[in-house]
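Fold these two proteins, one after the other.
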Amino acid sequence: MEADRRNADPKAASNIPGESQIQIGLARAHLGLKQYAEAWKSLEATRILNANDPDVYTYRGAYYLQQDKIKQAVRELEKAMRMEGIGRIGCRVFAASSGVALLV
């Protein structure tokens, strides 16, 4: 995958997802299928690759919300909201749809 990225046309290279984005996509798919063990593996792989990505914590929050683990979900979503980026929007959407009040 990395070789493909280096050899790609520079204009198209930005459209090739990185490993972190692929793992987030896998986590989302597994969450949608309620395959929680597999979702967690992808979320952990993403966290290891890029712990500064707010989406990691947004989807970890979704992981916990889907299992009614509200305290853990709030912790993860608040962490994502303290970070910059699209994570803020995702957190608000997940929280609002689940009736969870966030402190950040």
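Now the second one:
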Amino acid sequence: MPITLQVRSIEQGLSVVAIQGDARHSDAKPGTNPFRDALGEQWPTMKVILDLMHTDTVDSAAAGWLMASATQFSQRGGALVVCCASDFVKQVFKFIKLEKKVPVVEDEAAARQALAPK
């Protein structure tokens, strides 16, 4: 089943979205972007917290989607922070070096702090 993001909140320019279940993007139609589906066309200009508390695994297509999305956030002035990832998911992110593009933090409070104006 393709990734579906649940929008938990949108407040003061900050969106919190969550993946429920496994992050499998290999079943998605080409060109599909769950951030666009959940947040609209302006998604790469937003500050977004991606909560993975209920996500046990990430397939290679989902990892690729996150890497590509991170680039789009960076190019369009937005930002992405991942929180609440399982140890397995953290290992996958470390292996693909995602944390060089996207901060991976312990919880939503740390994600909010990472996105706060400096």
